[in-house]
Structure formats: structure tokens, C-alpha cells
Amino acid sequence: MTLLDDLAEDVLLSPAQLLAALAEHERRAAVLALAVRHVETAGLWAAEGAVSYASWLRDRGRMSAATASRWVRRGRTLDRFEPLAEGAVSGRLAEGQVDVVERLARPKYDELLSAQVSGLVDVIAPLSVADAHTVCAAWQAKADAVINEAEPPLEPIRDLSMGRDGGGSLLGRFVLPDDAATELEKAIRTASTWGGTDDDRSSGERSADALFDIAAFYNRNHDRAGTPRHRPHVGMSVDESTVREGAPVGVDDDTHFPHQSATTDTYLCDCVLHTILRDSYGTPVGFGRSRYIVPVRLFRQVAARDGGCRFPGCDRTVRYCDAHHIRYWRHHGTTEYDNLVLLCNRHHHLVHRQRLEVKLLPNGELHVTWPDGRHRVSRPHRVSRPDHPRPDRPPPDPQPSSADPPRVAAVT
Ligand SMILES: [Zn+2]
Ligand SMILES: [Zn+2]
Predict the structure, then answer these.
(1) Ligand 1 centre and the CA of 160: distance in Å?
(2) Residue ranges of the domains in the chain?
(3) pTM of this prediction?
(4) Looking at the CA of 348, which ligand is closest?
(5) Is the pLDDT of residue 393 over 70?
């Protein structure tokens, strides 16, 4: 007996019944959005001490910030534009169509949209979401022209919406005007790599990897001041006890979304560490010294040896690379020349995710072994010449004392 069997009377399995149930769900959601707006305007939520309605919803409704703001926005839009609310509540408009119109609900279109939303609803009601989008884009272009007194639209249509699914993957959609599209296409082409005949990634996977690289590269280098590779890029809090237990779970300081342990491990390899002192209730009471896991001087020495990503077949340059601890930092691997190797963003995450065994020989060869026994070797991109002797080993970077571990380490 599965849960689905238990709920068989509620879960209607024919395609037509499913579509009808989804439509009913959307109608109820529209009514609920109006109710959300009603509670907002009544203001009673403020008596509970919340600083904003969205924060009250987050707290009392146990919602993510994105979900709370989506409900608040939907409630305000439906309340403001009655023909849209009528379409949503009656089921004449599907949620996807309401989403499209909602993007027009901006202060500068307020007056024009109020006057024309009824006609707009009539036009898009029989259309697919894609066609509704085209119609609304055309409406927006005309509205811009009217607002700008027949001048061509100053602001092109652009939109980006994204959110995490239950598995942690980011899903989204975007609309970019021609100039932004050209830049993005060029950046994806530039950042895409192909590792030869062994590279069996699809073109979509290569583009996704390129986008990951672009984001990581920007986050490391967005501030021109200082040493580019060590500018803050991802702020993360890690409970030190989970590091000791071998499955470190970091929480993104911006989104509060937990990282998988392989992701946490990757960031811990080469980051800036801040010690945050907490009292017995877990409240921060002070901040200790910040330090680089891999000091800049040591990174440069490793870079001089490796010349770029050392993953076999990869030709990513030093600017794209992290220093990876061959013996993990949390396994008491030292931050020393012989225990570090450069890996590009993609291959650094891959090594941690696939738990590859990496071995660096004194002659500079790097041996990479997969859990299924596959084995590949890479050599430094630039062989040290006699006039560039192997650098002296720098003094070991001080490791956190096990006798006095930080309760929480934040990585930036
Ligand atoms: Zn690493
Ligand atoms: Zn690489």
C-alpha cells in the first residue's frame, strides 16, 4: 500500500482529470493570493512584531524568502488589477498567463495598464504562455513609446527569474535584449572547453559548465582592488563539528541554502577563513583573525609549477584556478607546496564530487585515479627551467588548533 493508493480518491490519474485538478489548484491559489493581500492591508500581522509582511510570512508561514515575496507580489497585483484577478479566480487565465502579465505590474506602467488590462486579458486568455509573452512584450514596447512621448523604448525588455528545486539545482528562465544576448553568447563560447575525444559532455552540459565558470570567475574578480583571485566570492558558514565528522555542510551566507558536502569541501580547499566566536547559545560574540587558507605567495609558487589546471587534458589558465589540497585540509592535509595542485573551477568541483584520488609525484606528474580504477596522468604546463628553480618551501600555514576549534568558520 503506497501513499498514492491511500490518497487515490484525491489523486485523479487520467490526463484530463489531472489538468482539471491543476486548473482548480490555480484558481484556489488566486483566491489565496487575494487573501494574502487582504491580511496585508488589514495590518494585523504587524502586531506580532515582524518588520515586514514578507518576513512575517517567512517566519509564520515557514516560507523561503522567494516564496514569501512571490505571494506578496501576486496578492498586490491581483488586488490592483481587477480584470486580471477575475481571470485568475474564474480559471479563464492559467497561472502561467498571470505570471506574464504580472511582469508588467511596475510603477511606470501602472496608469496605462490599469486602463488597458481588461483588453489585454481578453487577448491573451486563449493564447499559450509563449504567445502571451509575445503579446505582453509588444504591449510593453508600445507602452514605453507612449511613456517616452513617442521616443523609441529606452529600456529593452529583460527579465531573469530563478529558484532552487528540492534537489538544490537552480532552475530559471531569462529574456535578454540583443546586446546582452551577444555578450552572454560570446562569454559562453569563450568559457566553453572541450577536453578532446574523452570529453563526452553534451553541448548543453558544456554550456552549463561554462556558465558556472563565468559566475565563479566574476565572483573572484569583480573587484579590481587587491589580488583578484582572493576577492571574496562565496560567503559560507560551516559548523566545525560537521567538518570533524567528515561530512562538512556549509550554509550559503546570502541565501541560507545548505551546500552539499562536496561543494563545501571544494570551497574549504582555497578560501578566506574567518573565525566567529559564539557563546553557549550560538550567538556570535566576536570575530577572530581572517586568513587565507592558501597564502597568495604560496599560490604563486604552485602556479609557477603547474601553469594552469592540472586535470588531465585541461588547458584552463591560472586565473581560472583554485589551489586544491591533495590530502584534504580537513584530513589534516598541510597547506604546503607538495600538497597543493591547481585545478580549474569545473575540475576542482569534479574532483571533490567524484572523490577522485590525486597523487603528485616529485617529478611534477599528477596521477588521477577514478573510483572505478580508471587512471590518467598530467604534466605541468610549463616545466621549470634551471633559471626558475623549484621554490623553497614556505613555512607551513598555521592550521586551526584542534584544542580550540572555531564553532563556525565562514568562508569567503
Ligand atoms: Zn579541493
Ligand atoms: Zn580544468
Answers:
(1) 31
(2) 14-162, 176-194+201-221, 228-411
(3) 0.53
(4) 1
(5) no
